[in-house]
Design a protein that fits this description.
By secondary structure, the protein is an all-alpha fold. It has ten helices and no strands. It is about 85% helix and about 0% strand.
């Protein structure tokens, strides 16, 4: 029974559960607001927050396991590909509700979205797409392990930077954005500590 429960929250099943939950959450937000502009803007904010949580789960999985090996951190490492794909799906939903916002209230949309936002956001989406497209064993074989590792290493840091910029610039507007900024800095520190721990172990 325990093994069947583990399988339910592993791999593709985990991705499907996350994708269904994300889709349902967005529909509830839009339905309860009758798809008016405020409901769409709330969906934009919430999908960004869902994306950050899922990104951090994948981003921190290996570091957490190196620093604190356990069944839970092993599960995170085993499923980080699927957390990454769920993050990509969440950000696809984010893009959809952004386009809904543009269609519903273009004047407000363009007053909030400037050219640098489009460049930074577009770059982020490009690397998210690359990560999602190369998150399968066939892509590893096609690229080769070294190139695959380099691509994913560069991409995750670009996405981390994208999240940091988009949240840090909003801190003057709302102190709430100190929370995601703190989480992102914490994730950075965690990965640096894990790297240091591995380096020490190799030296010994």
């Amino acid at each position: 029974m325990a093994n069947s429960n583990v399988r339910m929250f592993d791999g593709k099943n985990l991705f499907l559960l996350l994708a269904l939950a994300l889709g349902a959450a967005v529909l509830v937000i839009l339905y309860r607001g009758q798809t008016d502009v405020e409901a769409i803007r709330l969906a934009v904010r919430q999908t960004a927050r869902f994306s950050l949580i899922l990104f951090l789960a994948a981003f921190c999985a290996s570091a957490l396991h190196k620093l604190r090996p356990s069944d839970t951190t092993a599960w995170l490492v085993r499923n980080r590909r699927w957390f990454g794909l769920a993050f990509a799906f969440s950000h696809l939903l984010h893009a959809i509700v952004l386009f809904m916002f543009l269609g519903a209230d273009p004047a407000t949309f363009w007053s909030m979205v400037k050219t640098p936002n489009l460049v930074i956001g577009g770059t982020g989406y490009l690397f998210i797409a690359l990560l999602a497209a190369t998150s399968f064993d066939g892509a590893v074989r096609w690229l080769g392990p070294a190139r695959w590792k380099s691509l994913h290493g560069v991409a995750v840091w670009i996405i981390w930077g994208n999240f940091m910029l988009s949240n840090a610039k909003r801190v003057p507007v709302s102190e709430f954005y100190l929370i995601p900024v703190a989480l992102l800095i914490g994730a950075l520190v965690l990965r640096l500590l894990a790297r240091r721990s591995v380096a020490r172990a190799v030296a010994v």
